[in-house]
Design a protein that fits this description.
6 strands; 12% strand; ATP binding; two-stranded antiparallel ribbon; alpha+beta; 138 residues; Protein kinase domain-containing protein; Pkinase_fungal
């Protein structure tokens, strides 16, 4: 991702299905939704007529505001959601199935309403109370 941004390209669809792990290194695939940055020497944002990406892994800003520009920071936030989602889904942890379902539906996969996903992700970053007592086991 860093190499692409340095070259002036945003991926814009960071998701669990678009990352291959080969010899311990991550490789991004599926560059169909990528865009050239306006100024490749100073990566900042891409304006698009519609949002792109996998809903569960989109940044809080893009989920909340359908006209927000997509920045490299949004892609970085998507990496956080991918790692967090994989950890919750595939690592033994203390979250009950009901709490996990509630968290996924509220934060990572909110229902769309008038083109937005609401404030679940932003609220999660502010309070994180849904994860009180969360522990991971070996």
């Amino acid at each position: 991702h860093d190499d692409a941004v340095q070259a002036g390209v945003l991926h814009r669809d960071i998701s669990a299905g678009n990352i291959f792990i080969v010899d311990g290194k991550g490789i991004l695939i599926d560059w169909d939704l990528s865009k050239w940055l306006n100024n490749s020497s100073a990566p900042d944002e891409v304006r698009q007529p519609t949002r792109t990406g996998t809903w569960q892994f989109m940044s809080a800003a893009l989920v909340w505001n359908k006209s927000a520009p997509h920045t490299f920071v949004d892609d970085l936030e998507s990496f956080f959601y991918v790692i967090f989602w994989l950890s919750l889904m595939y690592s033994p942890n203390s979250m009950s199935p009901a709490d996990l379902t509630s968290f996924m539906q509220t934060v990572l996969d909110p229902q769309q309403y008038k083109g937005t996903g609401g404030s679940g992700k932003a609220d999660f970053f502010k309070g994180r109370s849904m994860l009180d007592g969360l522990a991971f086991w070996d």
